[in-house]
Write a structure and sequence with these properties.
The protein has helices spanning about 1-15, 30-40, 65-80, 105-120, 145-165, 200-215, 220, 250-255, 275-280, 290-310, 325-335, 345-355, 370-385, 390-395, 395-405, 410-430; strands at about 20-25, 45-50, 85-95, 125, 175, 225-230, 235, 240, 260-265, 285-290. The protein has about 425 residues and is an alpha/beta fold. It has 2 domains: about 1-290, Aldolase class I (TIM Barrel, Alpha-Beta Barrel); about 295-415, putative tagatose 6-phosphate kinase domain like (GI Alpha 1, domain 2-like, Orthogonal Bundle), CATH 1.10.400.20. The strands form 2 sheets. An 8-stranded parallel barrel has the order 1-2-3-4-5-6-9-10, surrounded by 9 helices. Strands 7-8 form a two-stranded antiparallel ribbon. Helix 2 (about 30-40) links the parallel strand 1 and strand 2 (about 45-50). Helix 14 crosses helix 15 (about 395-405). The longest helix is centred in the last third of the chain and has 22 residues, at about 290-310. It starts with a helix and ends with a helix.
Length: about 425
């Protein structure tokens, strides 16, 4: 329930250095790991999907909001996470997938998107109307006043959907604003230097407030919990730009003037545990992470594929998965999800496709040939149990837990546990200990 978010953020505004980790991924093993680690730590599990991943037409994950909600709830139950510890959020909900349409048509589809999320049980709603549509002025940023009016229009659609649930749903919690760099990582180092200016943050808050009040959405405005800004953290192809709290000090002081609002930080992937803790202390109380978790998934399955080749290559009757090679083939056959993001060539481009912090490989795991390769990998390593010595070589953290008896010898367990290691720093940073 979203009341858990409101309560956690209320504690933060009262001076406790607590926050909320936000798992921004629809990948099944990432969600398994998130549920497991949240259950272990007694932490709130906030899972968010974007309008590209999950929408009324299926998105690139092939899931509608109702289907994704059911899957997330199933995962939570499997790990015995109490139902009231699971919150579903919609990330960047707006006209982005339909921006090539005129604004009226794009917003009509965006309103249906928001309605479908609310009706599916999502209660944390990030409204993002920052993008221009086909009939907006070309080559120019969308004026903030227009974005605010469109945000209010989406909020009205969300409130209407919630009202149709006849009291079955808790109050919705809203997030407004958008981060400055491109979601999923920057392409140039200078982008990392951007930190939202005070006048920009204040303009976003005030214009959106006025737009809400102008549409009779005063009650909804009281449930706007966070504003997305850029605190100067990012990651690029091979580089992570760490948090420098001095550069964001003006933002931290500014938000203290609001009784209710905190900041939501996007692209916190790959930040150190200390940086994450500082972000929460500085009122970036919602930490969103996504690519770093599918990056950890890729690390783990690649480690298993190396183990598979070392252990089973040449064994009679065994067909190897050849996972890295299959991934390369799939990415080359359909380059649209990686080609615009990597300014490299030759060997460096080949390395970037697989190993970049941007983790563009995450868009390909649902491809049938990759699913078949993954199935072959797990089938092989289930049938032929992995020697502990190879786990020690390629997954040393999991080897230690295997030896101590806290981890089962199962290829899927090894993968999920490795992803848990990437999630834990977020839970710890938000715990306020």
């Amino acid at each position: 329930m979203s009341s858990l978010i409101e309560e956690k953020l209320r504690q933060h505004k009262q001076g406790q250095p607590v926050g909320i980790p936000s798992i921004c991924s629809a990948h099944p093993q990432v969600l398994e790991a998130a549920a497991r680690q949240s259950a272990r730590n007694g932490a709130l599990l906030l899972i968010e999907s974007t309008c590209n991943q999950v929408n009324q037409y299926g998105g690139y994950m092939g899931l509608t909001p109702v289907q994704f909600s059911a899957f997330a709830e199933q995962v939570a139950r499997r790990h015995q996470l109490p139902p009231d510890q699971l919150v579903l959020g919609g990330d960047h909900l707006g006209p982005y997938p339909w921006r090539h349409f005129p604004a009226d048509k794009a917003m009509e589809k965006a309103c249906k998107l928001v309605e479908s999320y609310v009706m599916a049980g999502y209660t944390k709603i990030h409204l993002d109307t920052s993008m221009s549509c086909a009939d907006d002025l070309p080559g120019q940023p969308l004026p903030g006043e227009i974005a605010a009016q469109r945000t209010a229009e989406l909020c009205r659609a969300a409130e209407n959907a919630a009202n149709r649930l006849k009291g079955q749903a808790p109050n919705l919690v809203y997030v407004i604003g958008t981060e400055v760099p491109t979601p999923g990582g920057v392409q140039a180092a200078h982008e990392s230097m951007l930190v939202t200016q005070l006048d920009t943050a204040e303009f976003t808050i005030e214009t959106t407030r006025q737009a809400f009040l102008g549409r009779g959405l005063g009650g909804a405005w009281e449930r706007v919990a966070a504003v997305v800004v850029q605190p100067g953290i990012e990651f690029a192809d091979r580089e992570v730009f760490p948090y420098d709290r001095k550069r964001a000090a003006h933002l931290s002081s500014f938000i203290e003037g609001y009784d209710r609002l905190v900041f939501e930080a996007h692209s916190t992937d790959y930040q150190t545990g200390e940086s994450l803790k500082q972000l929460v202390e500085d009122h970036f109380a919602i930490l969103k992470v996504g690519p770093a978790l599918t990056f950890a998934y890729r690390e783990a399955v690649f480690a298993l594929s190396i183990i598979e080749a070392e252990f089973l290559k040449g064994r009679a009757g065994v067909r190897l998965s050849n996972l890295p090679e299959i991934l390369e083939e799939v990415m080359l056959a359909n380059p649209k999800s990686w080609e615009p993001y990597y300014q490299r060539d030759g060997v460096e481009l080949r390395v970037a496709r697989k190993y970049s912090y941007s983790d563009r490989a995450r868009y390909y795991w649902t491809e049938p040939s990759l699913q078949q390769s993954l199935s072959q990998l797990f089938e092989n390593l289930e049938y032929y149990p992995i020697p502990e010595t190879l786990i020690s070589q390629y997954l040393p953290a999991q080897y230690s837990r295997l030896r101590s008896g806290s981890l089962q010898l199962s290829p899927m367990e090894l993968v999920i546990d490795h992803i848990c290691d990437a999630i834990l720093p977020y839970i710890q940073a938000c715990a306020g200990d």
